[in-house]
Amino acid sequence: MNRNGRHPHTAASALFRSYVLQLAVRLALLAWGVFLLACDPAQLDPASYFGFAHGLTFIDVVFAFSVVDAATKLFPRARIAMGSRKQYGRFHLPSLELLRSGRAGLSAYLGELREEGAAARDELATRLADAARRPDAAWIRDLPAYLDNLKADAALRADIGRRRAREVVPVAAFWIFANVAVAMILAAAGWLAPPACVVWMLFYFAFDMVCVVLWCPLQVWLMKNRCCTTCQIFNWDAIMAATPLLFVPGPFSWIIIGLALVVFVRWEAAFLRHPERFDERTNAALRCASCTDKLCRIRKPYDALRRDAPRDDAARARR
């Protein structure tokens, strides 16, 4: 990161370009859905147009995009952001913070590596060698603290949990409140019907990619995490997008919601079992020095936003 808070890499990564393309496709789907809602809302009713009885319909296209997007999050080798893949052990790059777990913790970790097989160990060795060529100064600066806390594993895990709770609890509360409010407004206006709910779902589906590529209000206003890579709700997008389908009964909604729940439960279960994979202090793969996604090309990391924000004299004095 340079002095202006911009990423020093100017070339867009392949992943970033693919996400820009996905954003364009999702915006096109949303625009198509709004057009149908205004001109022919019956085509947005899954009870009548889901399946191939009428050929390939718009509802079928929406279903395919939703299912494929959610399903990719269940495969470690899918070409998606590290923010999603960090739940898997193969993308855990141990930092020196693991010394806090003491001998027992390190033995357990090495045992996991043995179970993963030679291929996984070779991959980890390659990643560690790559990290050694690009040393993170924080490792050296914080080494005395690491060595002074060899038995602080329980405290560290508790701190990771507290930090995560400070991010996800406000988002969950806001999401529930906002969706209940929107549903009540639509019901009062007589619009809480499948066509409007499908467009509502498409809005979330498109805005999810807006958050990744352009700007994320949940990050800036509630979570205040650095970027997508460290985001604690990255895989909540499937269940969030599916929320409006709670008001659309039928197989179309049940399948999408069911798959989204699988993605959500797997994500949360991974954190409960391996919180060290979700924190950059214990997973060096989440640090800027290890990033290859470069999704911050347009949207600055949150720490850069804070540096660019106006500060009063008292704030300057504290720095």
TL;DR?
The protein is mostly helical and 319 residues long.
What does this structure look like?
The protein is an all-alpha fold. The protein has one domain (14-91, 158-307). It contains 15 helices and no strands. It has helices spanning 14-39, 46-49, 58-72, 82-85, 102-116, 118-133, 137-141, 143-147, 153-189, 194-213, 217-223, 237-242, 251-273, 302-308, 313-318. Helix 1 packs antiparallel against helix 10 and helix 3 (58-72) runs parallel beside helix 13. 30% of the residues are buried. Mean pLDDT is 82; it is low at 1-9, 140-152 and 308-319.
Radius of gyration: 22 Å
Q: If helices are DSSP runs of H or I spanning 4 or more residues, what is the number of helices?
A: 15
Helical residue percent? Answer: 55-70%
User: What's the number of extended β-strand segments?
Assistant: 0
User: How confident overall, as mean pLDDT?
Assistant: 82
Tell me the number of structural domains: 1
Q: What portion of the residues fall into strands of 2 or more residues?
A: under 5%
Structural shape: globular
Largest sheet entry: none
What is the N-to-C succession of helices and strands? HHHHHHHHHHHHHHH
- Structural class label: mainly alpha
Termini Cα gap: 19 Å
Poorly predicted runs: 1-9, 140-152, 308-319
Keywords: Membrane, Transmembrane, Transmembrane helix
Transmembrane segments: 20-38, 50-72, 172-192, 198-218, 254-272
